[in-house]
Design brief:
The protein is mainly alpha-helical and about 180 residues long. The chain has seven helices and two strands, in the order H-H-H-H-E-E-H-H-H. Strands 1-2 form a two-stranded antiparallel sheet. A hairpin with a 5-residue loop joins strand 1 and strand 2. Helix 1 packs across helix 2 and helix 3 crosses helix 7.
Amino acid sequence: MKKFFVAASIAVVLIVGLVVGTVKSVAVAPVVAVVSVITPLPVVTVAPVATPVARVYRHGDVSWVEPLALAAGWERRQIPRLLHIILRESGGCPDRIGGSVVDKNCKFIRMSTMTHPSDSGLLQINGVHWKKDHAQYAGLICKRMDICTQEPLLDAFTNLKAGRLLFDVAGWSPWYIQPSN
């Protein structure tokens, strides 16, 4: 700080002396130091941050799922069947719980008489896959993804990643429906 003050003082004296005409010779070094001090800082502009808009989901609309499914690890060739399963299982409502009745905007209305409350999210992933103490699939999602409760599976991306893990282990069988007689 002291060097800056001395250099600035010398520069002021030299500038004033040059203007008034009392200085006969000028040393170059102090002027160079002053030039670097008075160089303006670059202007930094900050882009405005967009406020995320809450997505409105519509029962029966899965048009938004494909890019998310691809990011979650599903292959493009699997998307048509995956979308069919999502429509059948949850109607495209990402936070749907098994047995729930929802309105056209995927908002919960009530539980139906037939309930499967451990079924979770887009793919209605059953509790046998995420409960750590369940024998079938040995709590696969709990053990491999550390998701041992239902709540995280109500997030669309997390549900698609968990579904992909199930698919890698068991193919389409977790979503298989036995043909009726």
